[in-house]
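can u pls check wat happens w/ zinc ion
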Amino acid sequence: MQKTKIAPSLLAADFGNLQRDVEMVNNSVADWHHIDVMDGVFVPNISYGMPVIKAIQGHATKPLDVHLMIIDPDRYIGTFAELGATVLTVHYEACTHLHRTVQAIKAAGMKAGVALNPHTNISLLEDTISDLDLVLIMSVNPGFGGQSFIENTYEKIKALKELIQRKNASALIEIDGGVSTENAKKLTDAGADVLVAGSFVFKSEKPLQTILELKSVADG
Ligand code: DX5
Ligand code: ZN
Protein backbone atom coordinates (compact mmCIF):
# COMPACT_ATOMS: atom_id res chain seq x y z
CA MET A 1 0.00 0.00 0.00
CA GLN A 2 1.49 3.30 -1.11
CA LYS A 3 1.03 6.43 0.93
CA THR A 4 0.33 9.14 -1.60
CA LYS A 5 0.11 12.67 -0.27
CA ILE A 6 -2.82 14.75 -1.53
CA ALA A 7 -2.41 18.53 -1.73
CA PRO A 8 -5.63 20.39 -2.66
CA SER A 9 -4.81 23.61 -4.52
CA LEU A 10 -6.57 26.58 -2.95
CA LEU A 11 -6.38 28.39 -6.29
CA ALA A 12 -9.70 26.71 -7.07
CA ALA A 13 -11.26 27.57 -3.68
CA ASP A 14 -14.12 30.06 -3.28
CA PHE A 15 -12.18 33.16 -2.15
CA GLY A 16 -15.35 34.61 -0.65
CA ASN A 17 -15.42 31.59 1.64
CA LEU A 18 -11.72 30.99 2.05
CA GLN A 19 -11.86 30.09 5.75
CA ARG A 20 -14.58 27.52 5.04
CA ASP A 21 -12.55 25.96 2.23
CA VAL A 22 -9.31 25.87 4.27
CA GLU A 23 -11.23 24.20 7.11
CA MET A 24 -12.66 21.67 4.65
CA VAL A 25 -9.07 20.69 3.79
CA ASN A 26 -8.23 20.57 7.54
CA ASN A 27 -11.08 18.11 8.06
CA SER A 28 -10.21 15.96 5.06
CA VAL A 29 -7.65 13.17 4.55
CA ALA A 30 -5.53 15.60 2.52
CA ASP A 31 -1.92 16.01 3.63
CA TRP A 32 -0.92 19.52 2.59
CA HIS A 33 -2.49 22.85 1.61
CA HIS A 34 -1.12 23.73 -1.85
CA ILE A 35 -0.71 27.48 -2.29
CA ASP A 36 -0.08 28.88 -5.79
CA VAL A 37 1.62 32.26 -5.95
CA MET A 38 1.60 33.94 -9.40
CA ASP A 39 3.15 37.30 -10.26
CA GLY A 40 1.68 38.09 -13.68
CA VAL A 41 5.22 38.04 -15.13
CA PHE A 42 6.54 34.48 -14.91
CA VAL A 43 3.00 33.33 -15.67
CA PRO A 44 0.22 35.39 -17.31
CA ASN A 45 -1.99 35.31 -14.22
CA ILE A 46 -1.90 36.92 -10.76
CA SER A 47 -3.28 34.78 -7.91
CA TYR A 48 -2.92 36.17 -4.39
CA GLY A 49 -0.21 37.60 -2.17
CA MET A 50 1.01 37.86 1.40
CA PRO A 51 -2.13 39.12 3.23
CA VAL A 52 -4.23 36.32 1.77
CA ILE A 53 -1.58 33.69 2.51
CA LYS A 54 -1.38 35.01 6.09
CA ALA A 55 -5.15 34.54 6.39
CA ILE A 56 -4.87 30.99 5.01
CA GLN A 57 -2.06 30.22 7.45
CA GLY A 58 -4.24 31.47 10.33
CA HIS A 59 -6.81 28.75 9.66
CA ALA A 60 -4.71 25.94 8.19
CA THR A 61 -3.78 22.96 10.37
CA LYS A 62 -1.72 21.08 7.76
CA PRO A 63 1.67 21.91 6.24
CA LEU A 64 1.71 24.74 3.68
CA ASP A 65 3.08 23.60 0.32
CA VAL A 66 3.90 26.88 -1.44
CA HIS A 67 4.42 26.87 -5.22
CA LEU A 68 6.03 30.09 -6.40
CA MET A 69 5.36 30.97 -10.03
CA ILE A 70 7.31 34.22 -9.78
CA ILE A 71 10.52 35.63 -11.22
CA ASP A 72 13.54 36.08 -8.95
CA PRO A 73 12.00 34.17 -6.00
CA ASP A 74 15.07 34.78 -3.78
CA ARG A 75 13.56 38.15 -2.85
CA TYR A 76 10.77 36.48 -0.87
CA ILE A 77 12.36 33.42 0.77
CA GLY A 78 12.47 35.08 4.21
CA THR A 79 8.88 36.28 3.88
CA PHE A 80 7.57 32.80 3.09
CA ALA A 81 9.50 31.35 6.02
CA GLU A 82 7.80 33.92 8.28
CA LEU A 83 4.43 33.02 6.75
CA GLY A 84 4.96 29.44 7.89
CA ALA A 85 5.65 27.63 4.60
CA THR A 86 6.80 24.05 5.15
CA VAL A 87 7.75 23.39 1.52
CA LEU A 88 8.87 26.24 -0.74
CA THR A 89 9.02 25.36 -4.43
CA VAL A 90 10.61 27.64 -7.01
CA HIS A 91 10.60 27.23 -10.79
CA TYR A 92 13.75 25.97 -12.50
CA GLU A 93 13.04 28.45 -15.32
CA ALA A 94 12.89 31.41 -12.89
CA CYS A 95 16.23 30.85 -11.12
CA THR A 96 19.57 31.98 -12.52
CA HIS A 97 21.43 30.56 -9.52
CA LEU A 98 19.27 27.59 -8.59
CA HIS A 99 21.84 26.00 -6.27
CA ARG A 100 22.09 29.19 -4.24
CA THR A 101 18.30 29.57 -4.09
CA VAL A 102 17.85 25.98 -2.87
CA GLN A 103 20.47 26.47 -0.15
CA ALA A 104 18.79 29.73 0.94
CA ILE A 105 15.38 28.01 1.25
CA LYS A 106 16.90 25.29 3.45
CA ALA A 107 18.86 27.82 5.52
CA ALA A 108 15.54 29.58 6.20
CA GLY A 109 14.23 26.32 7.69
CA MET A 110 11.98 25.13 4.86
CA LYS A 111 12.01 22.11 2.59
CA ALA A 112 13.23 23.02 -0.90
CA GLY A 113 11.33 22.13 -4.06
CA VAL A 114 12.01 22.81 -7.73
CA ALA A 115 9.21 22.91 -10.31
CA LEU A 116 9.69 22.06 -13.99
CA ASN A 117 7.51 23.43 -16.77
CA PRO A 118 6.24 20.90 -19.34
CA HIS A 119 9.07 21.81 -21.76
CA THR A 120 11.86 21.48 -19.18
CA ASN A 121 13.79 18.23 -19.31
CA ILE A 122 14.41 16.13 -16.20
CA SER A 123 18.11 15.76 -17.09
CA LEU A 124 18.63 19.43 -16.11
CA LEU A 125 18.33 18.33 -12.47
CA GLU A 126 21.35 15.96 -12.65
CA ASP A 127 23.49 18.34 -10.60
CA THR A 128 20.91 19.48 -8.05
CA ILE A 129 18.68 16.47 -7.38
CA SER A 130 20.64 15.38 -4.28
CA ASP A 131 19.99 18.78 -2.66
CA LEU A 132 16.24 18.74 -3.25
CA ASP A 133 13.42 17.67 -0.94
CA LEU A 134 10.85 17.75 -3.75
CA VAL A 135 10.52 18.05 -7.50
CA LEU A 136 7.22 19.37 -8.86
CA ILE A 137 6.46 18.27 -12.41
CA MET A 138 3.96 20.60 -14.07
CA SER A 139 1.43 18.47 -15.93
CA VAL A 140 -0.14 21.62 -17.45
CA ASN A 141 1.45 24.96 -18.36
CA PRO A 142 1.48 26.97 -15.12
CA GLY A 143 -0.81 29.93 -14.59
CA PHE A 144 -4.34 28.58 -14.49
CA GLY A 145 -6.40 25.85 -12.90
CA GLY A 146 -8.76 23.63 -14.85
CA GLN A 147 -6.50 22.82 -17.83
CA SER A 148 -6.09 19.44 -19.57
CA PHE A 149 -3.45 17.04 -18.30
CA ILE A 150 -0.39 16.61 -20.56
CA GLU A 151 0.15 12.89 -21.27
CA ASN A 152 3.96 13.14 -21.59
CA THR A 153 4.00 13.60 -17.79
CA TYR A 154 4.17 9.83 -17.19
CA GLU A 155 7.46 9.60 -19.10
CA LYS A 156 8.86 12.52 -17.11
CA ILE A 157 7.93 10.89 -13.80
CA LYS A 158 9.71 7.70 -14.84
CA ALA A 159 12.81 9.62 -15.92
CA LEU A 160 12.84 11.54 -12.63
CA LYS A 161 12.37 8.36 -10.58
CA GLU A 162 15.31 6.81 -12.43
CA LEU A 163 17.46 9.90 -11.71
CA ILE A 164 16.53 9.91 -8.00
CA GLN A 165 17.37 6.23 -7.64
CA ARG A 166 20.60 6.47 -9.62
CA LYS A 167 21.82 9.37 -7.46
CA ASN A 168 20.54 7.74 -4.26
CA ALA A 169 18.54 10.93 -3.64
CA SER A 170 15.35 11.27 -1.62
CA ALA A 171 13.30 14.01 -3.33
CA LEU A 172 9.53 13.52 -3.42
CA ILE A 173 7.85 13.67 -6.84
CA GLU A 174 4.84 16.02 -6.93
CA ILE A 175 2.46 16.32 -9.90
CA ASP A 176 0.49 19.52 -10.48
CA GLY A 177 -2.22 20.16 -13.07
CA GLY A 178 -5.21 18.25 -14.39
CA VAL A 179 -5.05 15.59 -11.66
CA SER A 180 -8.20 13.54 -11.00
CA THR A 181 -9.25 9.99 -10.16
CA GLU A 182 -8.90 9.31 -13.92
CA ASN A 183 -5.10 9.55 -13.84
CA ALA A 184 -4.17 9.29 -10.12
CA LYS A 185 -3.32 5.57 -10.16
CA LYS A 186 -1.29 5.80 -13.35
CA LEU A 187 0.64 8.72 -11.82
CA THR A 188 1.50 6.87 -8.62
CA ASP A 189 2.34 3.71 -10.57
CA ALA A 190 4.83 5.80 -12.56
CA GLY A 191 6.40 7.06 -9.29
CA ALA A 192 4.46 10.12 -8.06
CA ASP A 193 4.46 10.72 -4.28
CA VAL A 194 2.32 13.88 -4.03
CA LEU A 195 -0.74 14.80 -6.12
CA VAL A 196 -1.97 18.40 -6.33
CA ALA A 197 -5.63 18.80 -7.28
CA GLY A 198 -7.49 22.09 -7.67
CA SER A 199 -10.65 22.00 -9.77
CA PHE A 200 -11.23 18.30 -9.23
CA VAL A 201 -11.56 18.90 -5.47
CA PHE A 202 -13.15 22.34 -5.25
CA LYS A 203 -15.63 21.97 -8.12
CA SER A 204 -16.89 18.77 -6.51
CA GLU A 205 -20.26 18.76 -4.72
CA LYS A 206 -18.67 16.65 -1.98
CA PRO A 207 -15.03 17.76 -1.71
CA LEU A 208 -14.30 15.73 1.46
CA GLN A 209 -15.38 12.56 -0.31
CA THR A 210 -13.55 13.54 -3.50
CA ILE A 211 -10.27 13.93 -1.57
CA LEU A 212 -10.84 10.54 0.04
CA GLU A 213 -11.52 8.94 -3.36
CA LEU A 214 -8.43 10.56 -4.88
CA LYS A 215 -6.28 9.18 -2.09
CA SER A 216 -7.72 5.68 -2.23
CA VAL A 217 -7.49 5.50 -6.04
CA ALA A 218 -3.88 6.76 -5.88
CA ASP A 219 -2.95 4.18 -3.24
CA GLY A 220 -5.03 1.37 -4.76
C1 DX5 B 1 -1.38 25.85 -12.02
C2 DX5 B 1 -1.22 25.61 -10.54
C3 DX5 B 1 -1.97 24.44 -10.04
C4 DX5 B 1 -3.46 24.53 -10.25
C5 DX5 B 1 -3.94 23.14 -10.53
O1 DX5 B 1 -0.49 26.80 -12.46
O2 DX5 B 1 0.15 25.38 -10.20
O3 DX5 B 1 -1.67 24.15 -8.68
O4 DX5 B 1 -4.15 25.07 -9.16
O5 DX5 B 1 -5.28 23.21 -10.86
P1 DX5 B 1 -6.06 21.99 -11.51
O6 DX5 B 1 -5.97 20.83 -10.54
O7 DX5 B 1 -7.44 22.53 -11.66
O8 DX5 B 1 -5.39 21.68 -12.81
ZN1 ZN C 1 0.63 24.60 -8.08
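The chain has one domain: 5-219.
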